[in-house]
Amino acid sequence: MRITTLEPQANNPERINLYVDGRFLLGVSAAIVLQMGLQLGQELLPDQLELLRREEAEQRAVDRALNYLSFRPRSREEVRRYLRRKETPPEIIDAALARLDRLDFVNDHSFAEFWIGTREQFSPRGARALKNELRMKGVDREVVNELVDDEQDGERALRAGRKKAMLLVNIPDMDYATFRNRLGSFLQRRGFGYEITTRTVRALWKELGSAEEED
Asked: Over the stretch 1-21, which tens digit does the pLDDT of each residue have?
């Protein structure tokens, strides 16, 4: 097989249409053409063709992963699952992830810091819920335990509950029992334990200046 044409694609000049013996063979990244030193008139041996196909499959997987990562940071396992859904072969997924690792586009420690920071800012969760979310995303237990501090649950619960509590106390005829039940359920759904929830409900009831005594 001899390369007879290397033609940039009309819609994407970063991709090249490769022809051998006058017939279209495949489209390939221009970077791979340069990397492999492919030239017109060159004989394309079977092992070179196999390498070319593998390099192209790996580059497609990397490009897909980078597009997936462009929306927000992802864990390594999230990227793996995404590529698997795209029916990418396991060996190509491994190779793509290795390249993304080298480029530091996939870093579970950085991802976990991002996830925790986002939760803290917009939707505080208890340590139990945070740990569960990160584990569901495939982050190693050691990384999760290093970054999620159980001792901060009191502060998290206050941040999580304050806005909800303000809405509740502005409801006409709101009594402590109803406030406790509604806010308590809200905090428990956010992953806070019974003790933290009870303490937070009392603190917010007092903070918001209700004259009614607790039951």
From this structure: 899 999 999 989 889 999 999
